[in-house]
Description:
Blueprint: H1 9-26, H2 30-34, H3 39-42, H4 48-51, H5 59-80, H6 82-107, H7 117-130, H8 132-151, H9 158-175
Amino acid sequence: MLKTKDFTSTNIIIVITIIMFLVQTNIQYGSLYLGLNLYFTHAGFYWQPLTSMFSHGGFGHIAMNMFVLYQFGNLIEKYRGKKEFLLIYFVGGILTSLLSYLYIYYLDNQVNLVGASGAICVLMGYIAYFDKYQRKGIITWILIISVAPILIGLPIAWYSHFIGFALGFVFGVVRK
């Protein structure tokens, strides 16, 4: 049975992300339309910095991201409030997408960026700023999720993780 405490902004975003993933996988070229790629500027797909946060590369990708979003999003929402969480997640996520696009545009224009991990790393950077006890562990985790997949040959947007984490830390400084 659902309770009022289950209707957090974080949990609603998780449900919307799952719905968007189902939409993405059931329309032709869904990942290209909704992911972040050169169509953003070359074809006027200006929605991509937002929709790329809701698109994912497969079931494992979305499951892992939603698990981490559940943990960190609900934590921020509980201690800093719903508005603070939404501001950090969406502004941070879109800024991460835009800065990641610069990497794509200038350094690797074959990329189609999908996933909420950049926005989630914003949340992790934000928490790392406030919680000095957890900081080293969070930084270690960011390094592991950014470097380990590359070492085994998985295509991962490591730069988006680092950009998001840095933005989250800066948001912590600004929003303290």
